[in-house]
Write a structure and sequence with these properties.
heterotrimer, A alpha/beta (380), B alpha+beta (127), C alpha/beta (404), A: 380 residues, alpha/beta, three-stranded antiparallel beta sheet, 12 strands, B: alpha+beta, 20% strand, binds pyridoxal-5'-phosphate
């Protein structure tokens, strides 16, 4: 049996049409070269820029292509921060490490880092957020949707508050893209200054991402040399990956796949609840493809390995915090007990998954849980 | 850089390349630009006794737009009298060749070359 | 006849070798996992591929695979090495940096950025042949020189610096030594077990691998430390966060494996072609080779054609894809800063062409190129007032030009 892939928030397989679009450019010229080889590459990058911009409701000139979501987050924070006088940088307690570690590193440049907590459902506490803005704040970063729980934050409201305080607002939209509608122009009116996205989460290739930014901001490069991307990101353009990113954006069917995954998740979560599982962030607004859950007294790693053997690829915690077996900081921030957080398993779907797969998964889950309980009983 | 078809045409088939005898009293020679700046234009005109430009020749060291600008003005100059020649403006050249902003200086240089050639001629004829 | 345009710009980028593309495709399709996924076979499979490629890259330069850190290209490698080492060691060693005027922008620009942050930099002027004078380098070293960065092979003129001698001086001075080797892999032997180099940058797309992937060698014995420049999930042992693009890494590994296996034969073939090109072009009057001819990779020939202007020259030779100076600067009209650093006049710098030969260049390509240049140079010189003056015996350098 072919393995069933339920880990789309970690990386989503490349769509065939994306691969087809990329193939000619795997062998393309350097986009900065003037001759015809280089010109073709340049045009392809420009087309992709339009495609990505369009899917985000942004203008092509508002885009900087990067090597991925991590670099986009680094550029968003460090690149905007570089031309601001260091003051407070405010982030949510559930940010992806690409934002969190970057914000921490900015302390060295004199920034004071303030993390705003989330409630039990994973939503930023708006009152606390507002209170934190009492302190002069240059930069705010709150993610659009969480990679582990799928919880969607009220970005527009927070951006409005930040705008009143003249703080620049960045949002990590890596998990939002493709799974919920995003319109940068509208977010920008609410005060969002910059937004990060990544190709490999939407059926594009690994190795491409973008920062979308309000051109009124004084953005500074963090990688120097060569003058590409109007001097905002040095380095030969990754033409094939950028073309793939554009193609992936151009075939997104956000509404449709959200509806589809929502139906699957309803069935999935009903089954999980019946088996005694706890679903994190269940009553908050969430990405419809994501389900993060745990079973009391069941070790997550063991469960995930058992599921892998049964042919289901799911995640324990997040792939990005490589090698760590610590309980998810996101769950701890939500006040989940470490013992329960330790057992957390994430299922993340996309349009290609089927109801049959979900039903098979629930059977396999049931089986694995029973087996683990038996083993636990013998050991006891 | 994308060149217009007209620039390409003049570049591929430059008109009136060559030299006139610079010691001839009916010939005015203008040399403008500098090698270090990347362009040097040499423009020569020969007038008949009625003061009409009968012939014009050029040689240009420079980019395609510089070559096209000087080639174009040799065509325009022929048949004009000196006063008419003086009215040729760099903007006319830039417009005719659809020069991009970074290449406007080529048309300026061509206008300068015309003026220099006429000045040279007038100086000779006054002497 | 050869199919035009003929690609002679392998130093700007190389096509991906078919074998490389074939190795990559499975990692774009069925083996698409995130190598950081620890919970399923998709992730493990990707991780195995990444580690295998790391071995392949290390093998080409005789390093330990644990010394290889993946990046998005040589630009990022240079930024990480230069800013990362300078910032890490500044407090203990000092804030002086040495580099060379002919380095790639991906070295110069990060160094300039450090200057803005309070570091002091010496940009050494190379000799007229493009090589760094070792005595001058030694004289530039100071007790507070924290970092030196000197490229192995120059991208415009192909000259090979004496990295070993420079590295030994750095060692003796307690200075971290970084080498940009983006243009060197597959062209010159690199033995990092022997070379006194602390940090070395690589790029895949100059060696028949894909764009958007590179690596930084970070020496383990003695251990070299860096301040990370990209923060996040702690990938690459904290040196460089960000999801690893598995297919590109696999491509770089395969490209470097091929380079190791085929380098000796390939370089001999390319040298024959280059020498033929040089001989052919030397039949044209008033041509000047830029950079030392002996201490140079066989892939590169950089020649100035006197009395013709650079852009019109590029237009004239549009049937061959070449560069006038580096690809990265050719959007601007400045004459090459590399050639200027060698003391070339602006005119000669403007009229230079870099021919870079590679894996798919044929003898017919070279013949075609020689014929094309002979014809076109003649045509442009017929148009050139400077050529006319030269032939009349006028010394152009003595003419007073009206500046404009
Ligand atoms: C919310 C979020 N931000 C940033 C990233 C980093 O993106 P990339 O993997 O493209 O570096 C990820 C994925 O790992 C993510 O889920
Ligand atoms: C010597 C040198 N260093 C660095 C680079 C930049 O490499 P990349 O394109 O991989 O960022 C290049 C090529 O452009 C180069 O020639």
């Amino acid at each position: 049996m072919d393995a069933v892939y339920f880990d789309h928030n970690a990386s989503s397989p490349l769509d065939e049409r994306v691969l087809a679009a990329m193939m000619p450019y795997l062998a393309s010229g350097n986009a900065s070269s003037r001759h015809s080889f280089g010109r073709k590459a340049r045009e392809a990058v420009d087309t992709a820029r339009q495609q990505v911009a369009e899917s985000l409701g942004a203008h092509p000139t508002q885009l900087v292509f990067t090597s991925g979501g991590t670099e986009s987050d680094n550029l968003g924070l460090l690149g905007i921060g570089a031309n601001l006088k260091p003051s407070q940088i405010l982030v949510s307690a559930v940010e992806h490490p690409a934002v969190m570690r970057t914000a921490e590193a900015m302390r060295r440049q004199g920034w004071a880092l303030r993390k705003v907590g989330v409630g039990a459902e994973g939503l930023v506490r708006i009152d606390d957020f507002f209170a934190a803005l009492e302190v002069p704040t240059g930069l705010v970063s709150v993610m659009m949707a969480n990679n582990e729980t799928g919880v969607v934050q009220d970005i527009a409201t927070m951006a409005e508050l930040a705008k009143q305080r003249k703080a620049v607002f960045h949002t990590d939209a890596v998990q939002g893209l493709g799974k919920m509608p995003i319109n940068f122009a509208e977010l920008n009116r609410h005060g969002v200054g910059a937004l990060s996205v990544s190709a490999h989460k939407i059926g594009g290739p690994q190795g491409a991402g973008a920062l979308v930014f309000d051109k009124k901001l004084d953005l500074r490069a963090i990688q120097f040399g060569g003058g590409q991307e109007k001097g905002l990101r040095g380095g030969s353009e990754n033409v094939a990956a950028i073309v793939g990113f554009g193609a992936a954006c151009s075939i997104l069917k956000v509404q449709q796949s959200a509806q589809h995954t929502h139906q699957l998740r309803e069935v999935l979560e009903q089954g999980i609840t019946e088996l005694g599982g706890v679903i994190f962030g269940a009553s908050a607004k969430r990405l419809s493809n994501t389900s993060f859950f745990a079973f009391p007294d069941v070790d997550g790693e063991t469960l995930v390995v058992a599921l892998d053997r049964a042919g289901f690829a799911v995640a324990s915690g997040s792939a990005c915090s490589s090698d760590s077996t610590d309980p998810s900081p996101v769950l701890l921030a939500m006040g989940v007990m470490p013992e329960l957080a330790q057992g957390a398993v994430r299922v993340s779907l996309n349009h290609s998954n089927t109801m049959q797969e979900v039903q098979d998964f629930l059977k396999a889950l049931n089986h694995a849980l029973k087996k683990m309980q038996q083993l636990a009983a013998i050991a006891a | 850089m994308a060149y217009s078809d007209k620039v390409l045409d003049h570049y591929e088939n430059p008109r009136n390349v060559g030299a006139l005898d610079k010691n001839d009293d009916h010939v005015g020679t203008g040399m403008v630009g500098a090698p270090a700046c990347g362009d040097v234009m040499k423009l020569q005109i020969r007038v008949n006794d009625d003061g009409i430009i009968e012939d014009a020749k050029f040689k240009t060291y420079g980019c395609g737009s510089a070559i096209a600008s000087s080639s174009l003005v040799t065509e325009w100059l022929k048949g004009k009298n000196l006063d008419q020649a003086m009215t040729i403006k760099n903007s006319d050249i830039a417009e005719e060749l659809a020069l991009p902003p970074v290449k406007i200086h080529c048309s300026v240089l061509a206008e300068d070359a015309i003026k220099a050639a006429i000045a040279d001629l007038k100086q000779k004829q006054a002497a | 006849m050869s199919k035009t345009p003929i690609y002679l710009d392998y130093s700007a980028t190389t096509p991906v070798d078919k074998r490389v593309a074939e190795a990559m495709i499975p990692y774009l399709t069925e083996k698409f996992g995130n190598p950081a996924s620890r919970s399923h076979s998709f992730g493990w499979e990707a991780d195995d591929a990444v580690e295998n490629a790391r071995e392949q890259v290390a093998a080409l330069v005789n390093a330990d695979s644990k010394e290889i850190v993946w990046t998005s290209g040589a630009t990022e490698s240079n930024n990480l090495a230069i800013k990362g080492a300078a910032n890490f060691y500044a407090a203990s060693k000092g804030k002086h940096i040495i580099t060379v005027m002919t380095e790639h922008k991906a070295v110069i620009d990060p160094v300039r950025e450090l200057e803005r942050q309070g570091f002091e930099a010496t940009f050494l002027e190379p000799e007229p042949n493009g090589l760094v004078d070792i005595a001058k380098f030694k004289a530039a070293l100071r007790p507070d020189t924290v970092l030196a960065s000197v490229m192995l092979v120059n991208n415009e003129i192909g000259v090979i610096q004496d990295i070993e001698a420079i590295g030994n001086l750095c060692r003796a001075n307690g200075t971290i030594f970084h080498v940009d080797a983006a243009q060197a892999t597959g062209k010159v032997e690199i033995n990092l077990e022997k070379l006194p180099v602390d940090l070395m940058s690589f790029s895949a797309h100059k060696t028949y691998g894909p764009k958007g992937i590179g690596a930084l060698y970070v020496r383990r014995k003695p251990r070299v430390r860096l301040e990370a420049q990209m923060h996040g999930g702690g990938h690459e042992r904290g040196f460089r966060s960000g999801t690893l693009p598995t297919h590109q890494i696999v491509g770089m590994g395969e490209a470097f494996r091929i380079a190791k296996d085929e380098m000796a034969l390939e370089n001999a073939r390319i040298r024959r072609l280059r020498d033929k090109l040089l001989a052919g072009l030397s039949e044209i009057e008033e041509v000047y080779v830029n950079g030392d001819l002996k201490q140079r990779v066989p892939h590169n020939l950089n020649i100035s054609f006197n009395y013709v202007e650079g852009e019109s020259l590029i237009m004239a030779v549009k049937d061959i894809a070449v560069s006038s100076g580096s690809a990265c600067t050719s959007a601007s009209l400045e004459p090459s800063y590399v050639l200027r650093a060698l003391g070339r006049s602006d005119e000669l710098a403007h009229s230079s062409i870099r021919f870079s030969i590679g894996r798919y260049t044929t003898e017919e390509d070279v013949d075609y190129t020689i014929d094309l240049l002979k014809t076109k140079i003649e045509k442009l010189r017929e148009l050139s007032p400077l050529w006319e003056m030269f032939q009349e015996g006028i010394d152009i350098s003595k003419v007073e030009w009206a500046a404009h």
